[in-house]
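Re: the request from the purification team.
They wanted to know what the chain is likely to look like in 3D before they choose a buffer screen. I agreed to run a prediction and write the result into the notebook, where they can find it.
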Amino acid sequence: MAKRDKKKTENSAAEETKPHESANFVDVLTLRRTAKEVKRHVVVMRILGLLAIILIAIIAIAYAISYFYDKYGSFTVKISKYDMMRQGLTLSEVPDFDRNNSVLNADIVYDMTNISGEDLPDNIDMVNGSHNGESYIAYTFYLINAGDDTISYDGEMTIENVTNSVDEAVRVAVYINGEKTIYGKTKSNGTGKESDCDKEFTSSTVVMTSHHEGFEPQEKDKYTVVIWLEGNDPDCTDELIGGTLKLGMDFKIVETT
């Protein structure tokens, strides 16, 4: 009888122990699960942090590019990609092009000061691509009909951005196949073009326009654009210091034959 009681007591003790051991096992699993969740959370946070750093870096680079582009100005030439793909109209910095381009960008001139147009090199129309001086932008490019159709096209040079009214004293010389025309803004008193200019700007936002009819296959039009601040302009004062100017020229096909 004593043995039965002893065995019963041991069984009871064992049964009382099982729930406790089971609870400990659950606690261990919970701790392990919690540790994995913590580790996973740390990894996720590190990845998110890295992505945030990359995003900030991309935004900073984009801002820097935009800042310098707006600060120092530029000259960009563009044609419609549709005109390039369907009609073969293309841009090139050299007459013997090896690939099609729909956009060209001239090099930037930093801290450009005023000069006289008379001081520009005589051969400024004889160099391809960017050939800037210390105080002027000079860019030569070719508009080429690489297609099979005879076309007509329009060109338009626009003022895309200007600060400190620097356009009051800017000059833009455009050579088309060697023929030179100097453009400037109308005199500030409204009495017409400046004495050193051939023509006034077309409008407050358009410098000049061009048109070519019967532009035949394999024909090339050579353009040279020169931009400077004319020191002899009465409006070229210290108030223009720090000003910026950004120009763009767009070409488009208006007729195909």
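For the purification team: Confidence is low (pLDDT under 50) at residues 6-11, 68-73.
Please add any questions underneath this entry.
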